[in-house]
Amino acid sequence: MPAKRYRVAIIGSTSKGDYGHGLDTAFQGVERAEIVAVADDNAIGLQLAGQRLSVEARFADYREMLDRVKPDVVCVGPRWVTDRVAMLQTIAKAGGHIYCEKPFVADLASADAIQAAITTHRVRLAMAHQWRAMPPVQRALAEIRSLKYGRVLRMRARPKDDSRGGGEELLVHGTHWFDLMIALAGPPRWVSGHVRVKGREATKADRREGSEPVGPICGDSVLAVFGFDDGVLGSFDSTANTSPGSRRPANSDQPKPVWDSVYGLTIECEDAVLQLRQPGDVYVYPANGVLPDFEQLQWKKQWIEDWHFTLEHQPRPIRQEWLAHGNRTLANDLLDAVEKNREPLSPLRNALLITEMVQGVYASHFADGRRLPIPLAERHHPLT
């Protein structure tokens, strides 16, 4: 019997979250899939997307597309979460499996509503957490789970710390790191959060919108600690405008900094420290803390022959390819999850827990930093 060929539809919204990080082309090159339709409420954007994807079935309204095309899988591209709940509920009701851009939703009430729809209609949802799909990261996760480096002790997440640092990056970049923390340590059990604005404690009056509509945010500096089983701790800390690029004046004749940001995840184990850096590379240090006075201890990059090099053993342009590779890997994984009746690599369950973690930071902060259990009892956003 020939393998099933999945009909894939794309939802974008040009100038309103667009197509996320390449989600329109996630299923290109996937043998079991065919992109059959695209929806975009922007006429020019729709025309360009149709040409880019080589599809004739083009719709201004995604609901009409779902009704007429009846796709097996739908890529939800817009980064804006303004229509996320209605969109995912409608797709689930239509029987479509979902590949979804991050961030997931703005609050826990929305997450609960989506979970109900996904569960009721028995479809699969995978989040576009491309870091999970990088070959060095996948190898590192397997090695850590095998206890190659001893027990996991602590995990520290750092974002880009540009103008979005603090509350916005807690949501838009923290989502990748929280997904990996859950992959390593299981569900978080509690959260303690601390949010500041210009050096003072944040209040609810400091609520604001981000650079894109991703729900209410707060703070230009955030410190959060999460507790996992077996005493494992995770942390996230961010302060806006502390990366070299954000502090360098525009059109400056100053030399460009040799480093751009601290964006990465550090994992401290009993016998080693691992650090994940963009574009999904992994470095290992042979002690459970960095010791600058021991020069014989050095970071080592974990090389994967068929990922880092071409067949001719030339360096691959990974920085230009990693997002496309991640999307394609996660797209294939979603189809495998459907066929094998299992969860995708970055499933709905993780998306729900990540939302708990983000909302929990604010809820804890406004409870004087008190440790709060996850799942949270209050489902409405702490900033509302």
3D structure, described in words:
α4 (108-121) runs antiparallel to α11 (348-365) and α7 (174-185) crosses α11 (348-365). 32% of the residues lie in helices and 21% in strands. It has 11 helices and 16 strands. It folds into 2 domains: 6-123, Rossmann fold, CATH 3.40.50.720; 132-326 and 355-365, Dihydrodipicolinate Reductase, domain 2, CATH 3.30.360. The strands form 2 sheets. Strands 7, 8, 9, 10, 11, 12, 13, 14, 15 and 16 form a 10-stranded mixed β-sheet that branches. Strands 3-2-1-4-5-6 form a 6-stranded parallel β-sheet, sandwiched between helices. It is an alpha/beta fold and 384 residues long. 45% of the residues are buried. The protein is globular.
Helix proportion range: 25-40%
- Report the end-to-end length measured between terminal Cα atoms: 54 Å
Strand content: 15-25%
CATH fold annotation of the largest domain: Dihydrodipicolinate Reductase, domain 2
Radius of gyration: 21 Å
The H-and-E topology, N to C, reads as EEHEHEHEHEHEHHEEEEHEEEEHHHE
Total discrete domains: 2
Number of helices: 11
Number of strands: 16
Q: Please name the CATH architecture of the largest domain.
A: 2-Layer Sandwich
CATH class of the largest domain: Alpha Beta
CATH H-level superfamily of the largest domain: Dihydrodipicolinate Reductase, domain 2
Structural class: alpha/beta
Low-confidence stretches: none
> Quick one: biggest sheet?
10 strands, mixed
**Shape by Cα distribution:** globular
What is the residue-averaged pLDDT? 96
